[in-house]
Amino acid sequence: MIQTTRPMIGAPISRLDGTKKVTGSATYAFEYQFENVVYAFPVQSTIAKGRVVSIDATKARAVSGFLGLITHENAPKIAPVGLLGPNNDMAVLQSDRVAYRGQFIAVVVAETLENARRAAELLAIQYEALPPDAELRGDRTDLVNPQMLMPGMPADTEHGNVEAALSSSPIQLDQTYTTPAYHHNAMEPHATLAIWTDDSLTVYDSNQGPHAVQYMAATAFNLPPERVRVISSFVGGGFGSKGGNPHFLLTIMAAQLVKGRPVKMALTRQQMFAVTGYRTPTIQHLRLGAEQDGRLIAISHEVVEQTGTIHDFVEPTATATRMMYAAPHRRTAHRLARLDVPIPSWMRAPGECPGMFALESAIDETAEACGIDPIEFRIKNDPEVDPESGLPFSSRNLVACLRQGAEAFGWQQHSRQPGAWREGRWLIGTGVAASTFPVVFFPSTASIRAERAHHYRVLIGATDIGTGAWTALAQIAADALEVPLEQIQLEIGDTNLPMAGIAGGSAGTASWGSAIMDAAQKFRAKLYGELGGELPEGGLEVRGGMERSPYAGQYSMHSFGAQFAEVRVHMDTGEIRVPRMLGVFAAGRIINAKTARSQFLGGMTMGLSMALHEQSVMDPRFGEYVNHDLAEYHIATNADVGTVDIQWIDEVDPYINPVGAKGIGEIGIVGTAATIANAVYHATGIRVRDLPLSPDKLLASLPR
Ligand code: MOS
User: Fold this and answer.
1) What is the DSSP letter of 526?
2) Which of 214, 432, 576, 601 lies at 20 to 30 Å from 83 by C-alpha?
3) Are both 671 and 594 inside the same structural domain?
C-alpha cells in the first residue's frame, strides 16, 4: 500500500519503479528492442604512449557480418565537447596519437556482437610506441599548478601566515596521507544505442543527464540540439562516471556509418577501467598547528594528484579543508602530474572523499597530541562563519551530529588509550570523523500537464541513476500540487521533456524539485485563478523552473555529518572487521526517509569498501590499471558490512532552495575511511596513513 495522505515529503515511500526493476520490465539503454540492430565493438590501444602507424583490417573484413571499421583515418571530424568545457579525451578518433593505454583507436561494426568483437580482435595494429611515464610521486619536479579546480574555484588558497604559525605552534603535526586510484564500477556498464536517420539522431544512453549528452552529441556532430533526442529512462548507477564519455560519440559515429540501422554498444567491465573515468590517486601533505588546549592555529593541506596528458582533470581534494575548521592561518594547494594514464574524472564526492580521509585522520592525530577527545576537539574548532568566504552558514549542524552520534553510538571518552581493549586475539577500537558536502544547484525547468481531472503529468528531463528520483520527485509534485501521490504521473529521462540539470553534485532532488514546485505553483495559480478550477478543452500545461538558489552567494551552504565505527583487528592475521557503523547527518529536509537512508547507507558502504579493500593498481611500465575486473578490484560484499545505523537531524534551512534539501548522494562516503582508520588506530595503536587498510600494513606492528 502506498501512503496517500499529505505531506508526502518525508514519508518512507518504497520506490515507485521498484516493481519494474525487480521484474525486469524497466528498460535500460542496451535493452531496447529494434529490428535490424547492429553492434559496435570498440578497439583500445595496447600501448600507453605513441601513435598508431597502421591498422590492417584484411582478416577483420573477412569475418561474417562485418559492416565497417572506423579509425582516425576515416572518422568524421567532431567538435571538441565536454561536460564542463572542451575535453580532449572526447575527441575520439581525431588523431593517430595515443595518450594512454586503453584509449579508443577504432570501432568495428558488425551484424552481431560476437562478430564485431571477433573482427576487432583480428585487426593487425602497428604502433610507434614510446615508454610511458605513469608513476605518481610527490617528489616529481614536473608538477604543474592547474590554477583552477573548477570555474571560480582556485587551486591554491592562503590566509594568514601559515609557515610562521605552524612553526611556532605548541602542538605540531606533519604527515603525509595517500589514497590509491578508485574505479566507480556502476552495476550497469556504460551503454549506448544510437539511431541516425536522415535528419535526426536518437540516442538511448546510460548517463547522468540526457540534456548534457544531447548538448555534447549535437555540438560534436554539428547538429541542432532539437534534432538529437536522448532517452535515459533507467540508469544502473553512475557515481560520477556517466557524465559523458567517449564511447557514446563512438557509437554515434558507427550509427552514421550504417545510417538508418540502430547500433548498440555496451562496454565490458574491463574496458571501463580505461575509458569511463576513475578517482585519481592522491598524495596529501597535512600540517596542523594547535594550542595545547586544542584550538587550531594553522592548517596546511597540499595535494599532489594525477591527470592524463590530453586533459587536465583536477580533483578538488583540499576544498573541504577550506571551510571545515576555524584555524586563522590556512593554506591549500593542488598540483598535478600529467602522466601517460587514463583520464581521471568525478567519482562520488570528488575532492571531499579523499581529502577528508587525510584531514579527518590528521584531526584525530592532533586531538590525541593535545590530549583531547576527538569529538571535543572538533567542537572546539567549529567555525562561527565559513572561514574561507567569511559568509554565514545557511545552517551548520556538525556539532549536533557529533553530539547525537556520540550519544547513540555510546562513545567512550575515557578509554581512548590505543590497544587497551581486547577480546581474545581481537583488538577492538572505535573511531569518529566528520563528513561534509557542498549544496549544489543546477538550473532546471519542468512542466505540469493535466488532460483530465485527478491526473497530473509532471514532465522534467531529470534522470534517476538509482537514487530514488522516480519516487522523491513524485512526492514533491504531489505536495506541490496538493493532490494524492497516485494522481501524479512522473515522466523523466528524455530530452523531449523540459531541460533539467544532471544527476550529479548531489543536486538532483533539490534542483529538479525546485523546478517542479515552481511549475506546480504556477499551474495552480492558473487553474484556480484565471480558469476558476475548470480544465480547458485539450488540457492545461504550465511550465516553471529555477535558475539558481535565491540566496546563492549570500550564505555558505553545506551539509554535514558525523560518522562512528567500531572495528576489530585480529592480532595474528591483521584482518579488520567492522561490526558496526553509525552515521548522523544534517542535510536539510529529507524527502523520502527510505530512499534517503539508502543513499547514506550506500555512501558509507562505499566508504567502508574504500577503507578496507578498494584500490586500482597501476603498472607504471605499461600505464595500465592491472586489476581491471571485479575479480581483482575488491569491493565490499554483504559479509564485509556489519550493522550500519543511519540517523539524521531535523534540519530546517530556509536559504538553500525551495525544496529545503541539501543533497544526500555523496556525503555518506565522506569521512568513512578516516572513521575506520581512526578506529583501527584506537584498536591497535597503529596509524595507517595509506589506504586501503590492508592486513600487510598492520601485521608487522601488531602485538604477538
Ligand atoms: Mo557525482 S561524482 O557529482 O556524479
Assistant:
1) I
2) 601
3) yes
Domain span including residue 473? 18-27+441-546
Q: How far apart are CA 608 and CA 564, in angstroms?
A: 12
- Rounded mean pLDDT of 675-684? 98
**Within 13 A of 539's CA, how many CA atoms are on the CB side?**
13
Task: Evaluate: CB of 208 within 6 angstroms of ligand 1.
Answer: yes
Q: Angle at CA 38, nearest 5°, toward 37 and 44?
A: 145
Q: Is the CB of 289 under 6 A from ligand 1?
A: no
C-alpha cell at position 477? 509534485
Q: What is the DSSP string of 228-255?
A: EEEE-S-----TTTTS--HHHHHHHHHH
Judged against a pLDDT cut of 50, whether residue 330 lies above it is answered with: yes
Taking the centre of ligand 1 as the mean of its atom positions, its distance from the CA of residue 502, in whole angstroms, is 9
Kindly tell me if the per-residue pLDDT of 414 is higher than 80: no
Same domain assignment for residues 416 and 445: no
pLDDT in tens, 307-319: 999 999 999 999 9
Same domain membership, residue 563 and residue 515: no
pLDDT, tens digit (0-9, with 9 covering 90-100), for 534-589: 999 999 999 999 999 999 999 999 999 999 999 999 999 999 999 999 999 999 99
User: Using CB atoms within 10 A of its CB, is residue 252 exposed (0-12), middle (13-18) or buried (19+)?
Assistant: buried
Candidates 504, 506, 503, 514; CA nearest to 444 is 514
Contact yes or no for 395/586 (Cβ under 8 A):
yes
Residues 471 and 617 in one domain: no
Closest CA to 316 of 246, 388, 244: 388
Check whether 413 has a pLDDT greater than 90: no
For residue 171, give the amino acid letter. I
Is the pLDDT at 376 greater than 50? The verdict is yes
Q: What is the pLDDT of residues 605-662, one digit of tens each?
A: 999 999 999 999 999 999 999 999 999 999 999 999 999 999 999 999 999 999 999 9
Q: How many Å apart are CA 538 and CA 528, to the nearest integer?
A: 17
CA distance 355 to 303: 9
Which atom of ligand 1 has the smallest separation from the CA of 242? 4
pTM: 0.97
Query: For position 325, which CATH number holds?
Result: 3.30.365.10
Distance from Cα 598 to the centre of ligand 1, integer Å: 17
- What pLDDT is attached to residue 345? 97
97: its cell numbers: 596519437
The residues near 417 (Cβ < 8 Å, ≥ 6 apart) are: none
Classify each residue of 479-488 as buried b or exposed e, where b means 16 or more C-beta atoms within 10 Å of its C-beta.
bbbebebebb
Domain count, the chain: 3
**Ligand 1 contacts CB of residue 240 (under 6 A):** yes
Same-domain pairing of 56 and 100: yes
Question: Does the pLDDT at position 3 exceed 70?
Answer: no
- pLDDT bracket for residue 199 (50, 70, 90): confident
**Mean pLDDT, the chain, whole residue set:** 97
Comparing CA positions, the residue from 67, 191, 208, 195 lying closest to residue 502 is: 208
Instruction: Let me know whether 57 and 200 are in one domain.
Output: yes
In the chain, how long is the greatest CA-to-CA distance? 83
The CB of 347 under 6 Å from ligand 1? The reply is yes
One-letter identity of residue 119:
A
Domain final residue, candidates 275, 295, 321: 275
Q: Is the CB of 348 under 6 A from ligand 1?
A: yes
Q: Determine the distance separating the centroid of ligand 1 and the alpha carbon of 507, expressed in angstroms.
A: 9
Closest CA to 574 of 698, 457, 490, 427: 698
Q: Is residue 305 part of a domain?
A: yes
177: pLDDT confidence band, cut at 50, 70 and 90?
Answer: very high
Amino acid at 284: Q
One domain for residues 658 and 692: yes
Cα-based distances in Å from 306 to 101, 134, 135, 270, 508:
15, 9, 9, 21, 29
666 is catalytic: yes
